[in-house]
Amino acid sequence: MERKYLFFDIDGTLTDRKTGIIVPSAWEALKKLEKAGHFVCLCTGRAWYKAEWFRADHDIKNMVCNGGRGIVIDGQLIENEPLNYEAALRLYDQAISLGYGVLTAVEDSKEVHANSFRFIQDVGERQEPTVYIIDENFHPSQYGKIFKMYIGLNEEQEKELDIDPCLGPLRFKKEYLMIQHDEKLAGIERMIELVHGDLSNVVVFGDDVNDLDMFDPRFTKVAMGNGHPSLKEKADLVAADNVQDGIWKICEEQGWFVPVGQSL
Question: Least C-beta-crowded within 10 Å: which of 19, 108, 161, 209?
């Protein structure tokens, strides 16, 4: 068995979306893959601060996070890039000038800054732990970097904005737009470069449309049975649902539990 480089999405792939807890058989599979000598890595769009506790709690050594721009190797944060500063600053100023509320993360943390309560008034508070720092004199130019922005506007209003493609806008909630990295493939490529791995031996696991980016033709692509139809169409393998031991079963079927260097 050649050494595989296995990258796992977290939400809906490793974890049960109903509980947010890792599927026990999936965790056991990761440990068995690592014991067999394979490279095991999380690959998540989550910011580093939102993913690090999960990585550490489950003793997973490696992680691609921050939408592909954060790299953790052997438990150490090696890289964590903010957004393109000039493009993000232009978008911030444009959104504010149009009267929309904007929350800005100037560090990779749960703290967000705003110059008014406009976002909260229009959208409400975010449905995850957030520390709001409201200062009428706030402007991101005071900090020189921007990791993430949340702009309170709907899909129709979004057309008013001139968003640089490098900013990778995402919309998971109809009430607001998220500006954050969305380049899992770039993160995988960077990780393989740093660990001197082999792209032809990469295996990726995902369940949702934001995982399409990492479903590259060079890789073995595994979609979970509970995954989005568009992901399954692009996959080489479709596993059982994650809560039905899909990760364990597909790894066993493909022989990935066989130790590196040993014949199948």
Answer: 19
**Whole-angstrom Cα distance, residue 191 to residue 40?**
11
What's the rounded mean pLDDT across residues 127-131?
91
- For residue 35, give the amino acid letter: K
The whole model's pTM is what? 0.92
211-214's contacts with Cβ under 8 Å and 24+ in sequence apart are 211/9, 211/13, 211/184, 213/68, 213/182, 213/183, 213/184, 213/185, 214/7, 214/43, 214/184, 214/185, 214/188
Q: Which amino acid is at 9?
A: D
Alpha-helix runs per DSSP H in 21-158 = 24-35, 48-57, 85-97, 118-123, 155-158
- The stretch 259-264 carries a mean pLDDT of 84
Q: What is the DSSP letter of 127?
A: S
Q: Are 72 and 187 in contact (CB under 8 A)?
A: no
Query: What's the CA gap between 152 and 100, in Å, rounded?
Result: 6
List of residues 6+ apart from 158 with CB closer than 8 A? 169, 171, 177
